Amino acid sequence: MKEITKHYSNGEVTIVWKNTLCIHSGKCFQGLPTVFHPLTLPWITPEESDTEKIIAQVKQCPSEALSYFTNDEEHG
Description:
This protein is an alpha+beta fold. The chain has one domain (5-70): Alpha-Beta Plaits. 17% of the residues lie in helices and 21% in strands. Strand 1 (5-9) and strand 2 (13-18) form a beta hairpin.
């Protein structure tokens, strides 16, 4: 499987999704269905929730396919 990494942002936080790590546990959309909805595209819409809820839910990902960074962090 080709590795794909996608980024989704609400302006404050960016969710990072890596397809090859995803085990499809469903914890993301069961816990925060306004942001994670796998039957529509884009399947992650972080603008539909606040940053604290997003971070808390991303931390529940058992495979670490989802991660995040705040947009004020420096990357490079």
